[in-house]
């Protein structure tokens, strides 16, 4: 069956990753008509995010209280985030339980991104909306004196919308169209491939049994030292027969690398890294875990980037509005990108709602419509959140890439010292959770 797009809508969300889906759920909750499209043929299945924080769970819970509960039951509650050195000495253990007074999600949830997206799509479908797949936006123009955008798709279809949500990821076509700069927040240079990019591989593997006890199955562990970070994140397996997910030897591995890895690293490449600098590699107490099977693997390069504004207004009042990776990107440390994107999407739906209401009231009372500040406030708030998160992620990344000099070791030691103090541990857990970034109402 051909999936035809309508010729017009009020809001068109371009991109059905976590940010676009969150915006869609939040618009549906406010009964605002929208269309959501994606260039892919179906939802992606690649290994990316695995850490979900309390802020995103809380934000999704405001839309559908059952949704975070279902996500939690499909994942592993990492109540601590542990960092060890090459000799497997504990450097620090961040206790996410310190935020229990503020949230029932006092942990980092280990769940693969594609499962989060899958659940969000299910909820969207429950509300009668679904993603239009295989719809790549290839051109945009202002029409009706700038009060609408006309989107042209690869399929030849055309759709007009007053609000276009740019949820189209870090290489955003819409951001480029809007002329919004995406710059490294430290060098202020345009983001693009460079020498200082962080290079890492991500792989979903099954470890052979028995799993050595120095690879925890109930939480994330990060091992740092010269050569780069080795992260082991346990996941629950999916059971095709529909039985509850099982906690087995399924792990997502993140390795920092200094060479150029193959596009899909194989078991031999991954095992060589584990043998050289993974758990057990420098300890006589435990063997190195053995990879029995690689389910998926990829390589990534990234560097931080942030837009100068999240909002582009056409002269007639049509908007291009950025959410998620189209507005910010950074390394995977601390598991923040998907979380921030989900919160962006939900906050944007609220801004669109307020803006529409204000326009409606102005029309009814015959007064001029002047609600530009609603969208500007969205832009200012979310940009400031992203700037803070990028700073935090960059400090964590410098700590993880402990190869260069003594600086990172001093930082880790300082962190170890302060993490002994419950208050400081609580502050760090609070920062990772993202709970402090919710919009003040
Ligand atoms: C290796 C790795 C590990 C990570 N780990 C974590 C983690 O643990 N926790 C965390 O919170 N974050 C993590 N992240 C970040 C997280 O994956 C991203 O922040 C998240 O995917 C961003 O979601 P998004 O919806 O903004 O963009 P995306 O997920 O990139 O989705 C964009 C969508 O737009 C579509 N699209 C693009 N162009 C067009 C077009 N022209 N027309 C139509 N559709 C288009 C694409 O097909 C895509 O589906 C990680 C990232 C990587 C790479």
TrEMBL record:
<comment type="similarity">
    <text>Belongs to the paxM FAD-dependent monooxygenase family.</text>
</comment>
<keyword id="KW-0274">FAD</keyword>
<keyword id="KW-0285">Flavoprotein</keyword>
<dbReference type="Pfam" id="PF01494">
    <property type="entry name" value="FAD_binding_3"/>
</dbReference>
<dbReference type="GO" id="GO:0004497">
    <property type="term" value="F:monooxygenase activity"/>
</dbReference>
<keyword id="KW-0503">Monooxygenase</keyword>
<keyword id="KW-0560">Oxidoreductase</keyword>
<protein>
    <submittedName>
        <fullName>FAD/NAD(P)-binding domain-containing protein</fullName>
    </submittedName>
</protein>
<feature type="domain" description="FAD-binding">
    <location>
        <begin position="9"/>
        <end position="391"/>
    </location>
</feature>
<dbReference type="InterPro" id="IPR050493">
    <property type="entry name" value="FAD-dep_Monooxygenase_BioMet"/>
</dbReference>
<dbReference type="InterPro" id="IPR036188">
    <property type="entry name" value="FAD/NAD-bd_sf"/>
</dbReference>
<dbReference type="InterPro" id="IPR002938">
    <property type="entry name" value="FAD-bd"/>
</dbReference>
<dbReference type="GO" id="GO:0071949">
    <property type="term" value="F:FAD binding"/>
</dbReference>
């Amino acid at each position: 069956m051909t999936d035809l797009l309508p010729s017009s809508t009020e809001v068109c969300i371009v991109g059905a990753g976590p940010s676009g889906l969150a915006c869609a759920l939040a618009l549906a909750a406010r009964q605002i008509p929208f269309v959501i499209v994606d260039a892919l043929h179906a939802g992606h299945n690649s290994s990316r995010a695995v850490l979900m924080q309390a802020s995103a769970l809380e934000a999704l819970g405001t839309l559908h209280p059952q949704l975070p509960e279902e996500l939690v039951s499909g994942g592993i509650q990492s109540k601590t985030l542990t960092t060890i050195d090459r000799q497997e000495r504990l450097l620090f253990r961040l206790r996410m339980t310190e935020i229990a007074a503020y949230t029932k999600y006092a942990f980092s949830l280990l769940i693969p991104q594609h499962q989060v997206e899958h659940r969000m799509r299910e909820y969207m479908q429950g509300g009668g909306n679904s993603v239009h797949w295989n719809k790549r936006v290839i051109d945009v123009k202002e029409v009706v004196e700038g009060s609408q955008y006309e989107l042209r798709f690869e399929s030849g279809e055309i759709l007009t919308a007053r609000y276009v949500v740019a949820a189209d990821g870090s290489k955003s076509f819409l951001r480029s169209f809007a002329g919004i700069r995406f710059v490294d927040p430290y060098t202020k240079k345009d983001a693009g491939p460079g020498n200082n990019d962080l290079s890492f591989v991500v792989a979903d593997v099954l470890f052979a049994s028995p799993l050595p006890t120095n690879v925890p199955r109930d939480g994330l562990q990060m091992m740092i030292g010269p050569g780069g970070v080795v992260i082991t994140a346990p996941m629950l397996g999916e059971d095709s027969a529909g039985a509850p997910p099982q906690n087995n030897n399924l792990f997502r591995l993140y390795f920092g690398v200094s060479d150029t890895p193959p596009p899909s690293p194989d078991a031999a490449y991954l095992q060589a890294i584990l043998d050289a600098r993974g758990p057990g590699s420098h300890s006589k107490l435990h063997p190195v875990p053995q990879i029995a099977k690689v389910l998926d693997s990829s390589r990534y390069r990234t560097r931080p980037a942030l837009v100068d504004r999240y909002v582009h207004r056409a002269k007639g009042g049509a908007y291009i509005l950025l959410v998620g990776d189209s507005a910010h990107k950074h390394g995977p440390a601390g598991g923040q990108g998907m979380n921030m994107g989900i919160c962006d999407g939900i906050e944007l739906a609220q801004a669109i709602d307020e803006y529409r209401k204000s326009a409606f009231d102005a029309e009814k009372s015959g007064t001029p419509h002047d609600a530009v500040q609603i969208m500007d406030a969205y832009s200012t708030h979310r940009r400031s959140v992203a700037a803070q998160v990028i700073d935090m992620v960059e400090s964590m990344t410098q700590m993880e890439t402990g190869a260069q000099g003594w600086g990172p070791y001093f930082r880790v030691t300082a962190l170890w010292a302060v993490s002994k103090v419950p208050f400081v541990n609580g502050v760090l857990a609070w920062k990772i959770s993202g709970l402090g970034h919710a919009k003040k109402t």
